[in-house]
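Researcher: Next entry in the queue.
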Amino acid sequence: MKYLKYSLGLIAILIIGFFFMGIIKPKLVYDCEIIVEKPAPESWAVIQDEEKMSEWLPGFQKIEHLSGTPGTIGGVSLVYFNNDGQQMSIRETITDIVPEKSISMTFEDDFMNMDYIIYLISIDGKTKIKSSTTAVGNSTISKSIMALMGGSIKAQEEANLVNLKKAIEQNTKDYFHAGEEIIKNEE
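Model: Structure for this entry, 187 residues:
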């Protein structure tokens, strides 16, 4: 009986500690960056290319535009992912965009809300890509889970940027002369 009391007491302390973590650290804030061996215009084009997103976002399936003009401020979309056999969607809203420089978005789902900004900075023909993220859980439980998993969430963003770097540097798609071929063919 004595061991049962100690066990229940320990379990109660762990549960209280779990919820207390979400109260102490209700949001997750982190930055990540990489340097890409391609210029900013091409880096931007790859980032915006829906056909390339599966190369750097694990499980990416498709984007369904809901309202506004895609790729502009106020554009709202559902972004679908396959997460270990389960389809999930995240609502994306573009809040600011400066072509070839930055894009700010909010992402919302049942678990959390996220403010996400990706910056592109030209450096001698290369591009520094920096992401800034602020994520807040939508419940006490999700806040506590995020407090525990903060390191792995940031590690996923770092892995995404490494995959993005690879997608940009291995890109062979010509984003800048495709329109010229159409014009020549029409003449």
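Model: Residues 27-171 form a domain with the Alpha-D-Glucose-1,6-Bisphosphate; Chain A, domain 4 fold (CATH 3.30.530.20).
Researcher: Noted, moving on.
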